[in-house]
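#onboarding

Welcome to the new folks! Below is a worked example of what a typical request in this channel looks like: someone posts a single protein sequence, and someone else replies with the predicted structure as tokens. Don't worry about understanding the tokens yet, we'll cover that in week two.

Example request:
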Amino acid sequence: MARSTDPPNIDELRSLVRNKGLRATAPRLAVLRRLLAQKTPVSHGDLCAELAPEGWDRATIYRNLIDLTEVGLVRRTDVGDHVWRFELVREGGEHDSGTHPHFVCNSCGEVACLPDEIVEVKPARGIPRALRKKGLEIQFRGTCDRCA
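Example response:
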């Protein structure tokens, strides 16, 4: 890829998808491009609203989100409202090792990614084994600065 700060171009996205064993279809690349532009996790509905003008239907977008999630290019999370949100796994970036914490506003519902170092899980006697494994999801809830 180009410099690590540059977003991948379309050929690099094709290569990324193919390296994961998937075909680099137009809708798959469209979904990746949109996720690449996002700073926070987005719902399927949000992506559909953005991609509808390009002619992609809801089912196609959903199938591609699931395919990209299964091969590890996209991460899926539920912040407690029963709506799956999707975000690109940015290898070599801030959140490249498993999940990372999120902040969810109780007022407006906005979801923000937080830096990994905001939470430190320390081993202690009697803690559930899940706390020692990767893939643990941590969410903070409160009122965002805009709603405060």
